[in-house]
């Protein structure tokens, strides 16, 4: 696992980010819904800074990405980390990279004093649901929003 590193996405990663988005959409059977473009992503991510991207590399090759942004909880009076997408290429799944990614993002949420770490998962994604629940995430609704409380974020960040 020491050969797995996480780094911030850069402008030079725009094409790679779009490729990962398209691969994820294809995996989920919604590739027809991808309308993102390189120029649109470049503007949103690197000029407007609407979201952030973390690239996972294994043996110096990109193997996945996470795209996230901050939301806000009025009840907590704090920002949260909202994970829009996390993707690991198929041939690298089952190696603990997903757990490592969630640990990395949990540490980031703690560093930024986030009160929550949330994401959505399609209900038919049983393997995803099982993985999230194993980490301590709580099902929230029909589309199933998952949330890690600060306690669970702390636990996961120490893996």
UniProtKB/TrEMBL annotation:
SUPFAM superfamilies: Acyl-CoA N-acyltransferases (Nat) (SSF55729). Residues 4-159 form the N-acetyltransferase domain. It is an enzyme of class 2 (transferase). GO terms for molecular function: diamine N-acetyltransferase activity. Its EC number is 2.3.1.57. Keywords: Acyltransferase, Transferase. The keyword Transferase applies. This is Acetyltransferase, GNAT family.
């Amino acid at each position: 696992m020491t050969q797995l590193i996480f780094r911030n996405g850069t402008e030079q990663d725009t094409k790679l980010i779009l490729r990962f988005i398209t691969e994820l959409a294809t995996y989920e059977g919604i590739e027809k819904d991808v309308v993102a473009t390189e120029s649109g992503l470049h503007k949103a991510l690197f000029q407007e800074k609407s979201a952030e991207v973390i690239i996972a590399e294994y043996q110096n090759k990109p193997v996945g990405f996470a795209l996230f942004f901050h939301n806000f909880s009025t009840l907590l009076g704090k920002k949260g980390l909202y994970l829009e997408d996390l993707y690991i290429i198929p041939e690298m799944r089952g190696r603990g990279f997903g757990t490592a990614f969630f640990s990395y993002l949990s540490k980031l949420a703690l560093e930024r004093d986030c009160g929550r770490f949330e994401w959505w998962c399609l209900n038919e994604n049983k393997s995803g649901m099982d993985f999230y629940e194993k980490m301590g995430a709580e099902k929230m609704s029909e589309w199933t929003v998952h949330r890690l409380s600060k306690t669970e974020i702390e636990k996961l960040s120490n893996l």
